[in-house]
Amino acid sequence: MPSVKKEWLSSGGFPRQIARIIDEGGGGATPVISPDSVLTGDGGFSKPAFVIVALSKEINSVIERLTGEGFVEGRNFIRKNDLCPVTPSIEISGVCNLRCIACPRSDTLHPFENGGFISVDDYEKVIKKLLQEIPMLHIVALFIWGDPLLHPKLPEILKINSELGIGSDISTNLNIKTEKLEEIIKSNPTYLRMSCSGFGGKNYEISHAGAKWDIFYKNCFEVSRLIKKYNSDTGVELYFHVNKANILEYKDVVDMARQLGFRMSACLSMCFPQYAMNFVENIPLPESAEKAKELMLISMEDMLSAAEKETEKPCPQKNGFPNINWDLSVLTCCNFNQDRLADDFLNTNITELIKLKNSSEFCKKCISHSIHRYFCIQKYNRYIQDLLMEKCNLPSYI
To answer: Looking at 11-115, which runs of residues are DSSP E strands?
Structure first.
């Protein structure tokens, strides 16, 4: 990329955390500009060099538009992930309030046992260390297995990220007290994904065991209200886990998303990799996991067979690194909750963690069973897209 000022192109993605980026001339933060400003030349821009800062599923349409206007990737623009290809995860809440049947931590995390919350002081130390060790870091996921909305001081953590110019990615089951939502939305997280597995209690409360549909439904409307009240630019997504029982309910969830102004997407519901590993090693699955296995649209056996054909392909989780636990230990992989790379992230530099990851015996075991290619959500996107068009006459996202 030419040694010129980097203009940041925002297409409704992540403008706030990029504001900290300093131009190469040392002058100061380069402003975030809209796609139209680049394409129309407003503000004196003429084929500038810039970085696309878009949501992952929107980036292809942005690139298509740019190339159609004569912009060349690598010369006029690059993607944000070219600057920082990794997205660290920080498990701020090591507890969850549900017992989701596909999740191997549904017992160990409930009810508020065998887990805890990262302190605000430790969080600040962790995020500042990440900023020192990972150039151009622009966003972190505030979850691995637990639910971040359970953290009693989540607004303080969001404030730290905002002040440091770091985006906050949150995934939640949204089964919390409604009154907690105001301070969270007011703190303006970058992205809020709300997991859903049905419309109405019948199927939703099977997969999201321990959840209450009425609470989830009410909180969805409250999130929408608060987004409007505070004019928040938080990206909100309803994330539908499609299985045999709930597929026809997708239409109702899409209607709700449209009504509330949320993004909508869908994924293939599946048992987590730990259960797939147990299955391969002939370790009996618990009754709840067997139920989840029965509900899978593509059988675990077929998914493992497909994964075996891709053993030589890389692990899609390689860029989700490092995965820092609430107690500051570092997980080997976000898809497994037991194996650790290090006991204390604050006393282990990133270079050492990379070496430990590359030589991990657990990773070698996972690859030997092809489990690293089992949980490839993107691989099944086209299948879900076609299936939802066939059954509901709707794509898997709107």
So the answer is: 32-33, 50-53, 77-79, 89-90
Helix ranges restricted to H, 90-138: 120-133
Per-residue model confidence as pLDDT tens digits over 89-122: 999 999 999 999 999 987 665 444 568 999 999 9
Residue 286 burial (C-beta neighbours within 10 Å; 0-12, 13-18, 19+): middle
The CA distance from 384 to 372, in Å, is 20
**H-state helical runs in 15-144:** 35-40, 59-68, 80-83, 120-133
Phi, psi dihedrals of residue 174, rounded to the nearest 5°: 65, 15
Say whether the peptide bond before residue 104 is cis (omega within 30 degrees of 0): no
What average pLDDT does range 369-376 have in this prediction?
Answer: 93
- 1-49, pLDDT tens digit by residue? 222 222 222 323 333 333 333 333 344 445 566 666 666 655 555 555 6
Q: What is the dihedral of CA 257, 374, 308, 87, to 10 degrees?
A: 100
Report d(CA 103, CA 96) in Å as an integer: 11
Q: Is the dihedral of CA 61, 63, 66, 70 positive or negative?
A: negative
**What is the Cα–Cα distance from 142 to 171, expressed in whole angstroms?**
8
The C-alpha atoms of residue 318 and residue 229 are separated, in whole angstroms, by: 39
Structure tokens that stand for 159 in this block:
């404030």
- Structure tokens given for 375: 């949980």
Distances in Å between the alpha carbon of 204 and those of 139, 144, 167, 170, 250? 30, 21, 30, 20, 11
Give me the domains of the chain, ranges plus CATH numbers: 7-83 (no CATH), 89-392 (3.20.20.70)
Burial of 60 (0-12, 13-18, 19+ CB in 10 A): exposed
pTM of the complete model: 0.83
Kindly tell me if the per-residue pLDDT of 55 is higher than 70.
no
In sequence order, which ranges of 150-249 are alpha helices (DSSP H)? 154-164, 181-186, 201-207, 213-229
